[in-house]
Amino acid sequence: MNTSSSIQPEETIIKGKIAENSSASSNLDACEKMTVQELKTKLRSIGGSTKGTKRDLINAFRKFFDEEVEDSQEIDEGEESHKLNQVEGEKGSKKKAESSCIEQHTEAISTVPVDKRIKKRAKKTTKDLDITLETSKDTEDCNKNDISEHEAEPWTVLAHKKPQKEWVPYNPKTMRPPALNGDTKHVKIMSWNVNGLRALLKLESFSALELAHREDFDVLCLQETKLQEKDVEAIKQRLLEGYDNSFWTCSVSKLGYSGTAIISRIPPLSVKYGLGIPDHDSEGRLVTTEFDSFYLISGYVPNSGDGLKRLSYRIADWDPSLSNYMKELEKSKPVILTGDLNCAHEEIDIYNPAGNKRSAGFTIEERTSFQENFLKKGFVDTFRKHHPNVVGYTYWGFRHGGRKTNKGWRLDYFLVSESIAETVHDSYILPDVAGSDHCPIGLVLKL
Predict the structure, then answer these.
(1) Contact call for residues 360 and 304 (beta carbons, < 8 A)
(2) Was 340 annotated as part of a binding site?
(3) Name one Pfam family in it (predicted).
(4) Which pLDDT tens digit goes with each residue over 165-178?
(5) Residue 389 annotated in ligand binding
(6) Which of 25, 12, 21 is nearest to 72 (CA)?
(7) I need a labelling partner for 342 at 20 to 30 A (CA). Which of 5, 78, 162, 372 fits?
(8) Cβ atoms within 10 Å of 55's Cβ, excluding its own
(9) pTM of the complete model beyond 0.70
């Protein structure tokens, strides 16, 4: 940031602004071009008279300007920087964007510090002490450009109700490492809760071929396919060329519900469905494939539901059973668990932590269970390991249009055995891929 320019929050810009001593005549010329309402607004903010004709208002402003500029004093740049750093949260994001835009126009804007009398007058509405006579047109234009950029890529906005100073928004364009060269043996795995596979495939905007070409994944794990067993063969006929190995499990206790799958161009050594526990295996929530170097599990962890009616089942039965199953597999080779794990583990993983303490997916019970049954058992959250202070979401509710404003949750994970955590080259999110209330996530593992 160029600290030599006076960059102030919106309230100060609107309240009125004055320019440098050497630019007094040009500032007064600007007054001539203002409307009566604009002049009244400016004068009201600095305690001047707002009565009379336009000429009276201009004279009042001229009188004020002549009196106040004479004994103005400069504000320390360090103090200005400190005050700018006090702008927080969503307002902070907006004002930082505004500040950036104003910097682009500093050549056309002249500024002057103000004296103690102006400080007192401004105190009621703002702590920022520089006032300029610039109209807000340039700022508004910049804001429009900034908003349009964020509308196209809303995930680049730090959307969080309780942000910490070191947190930054996730941007896959800048935060993903360079692709591995062809000499480095690796596997790329993607995972996606599609929230109904048949509905997704009907969308004109969705192209599985496009996604495959862009990401060139080796394995694709799906959750919440909502398929019935009778649908699977027809879906298999529509698979991308080269991905000839697919394994599907469907809910039999509730049709058109849950369901997971693994689609791969690498033939697995073995395949297993479920946990091997009848009480847990009727909803089609797990598929496990064994490859040369690891086991891969596509999982869809049960949601605790409205009123947390399944919370007890989730934390007392499902999580411990899945954890034990993974530890048993780990005796043979490392394990990768991916999918919708239905838990935002930390406050950084959810837009509104305070408002969701008793919401399914963010209760203290679920978060503690996630910690005890997975992280403390030696499974590593790869995205958080690679991006410790990054706010990145994978789920945005349809109901409130959260995706447009990036008000989301991080519910989708790649957890890996600690023994292979250091061989993870990339753990990433693809927030630009629409079609579901979740977006895909990816993992690049060096072999």
Answers:
(1) yes
(2) yes
(3) Exo_endo_phos
(4) 999 999 999 999 99
(5) no
(6) 21
(7) 162
(8) 9
(9) no
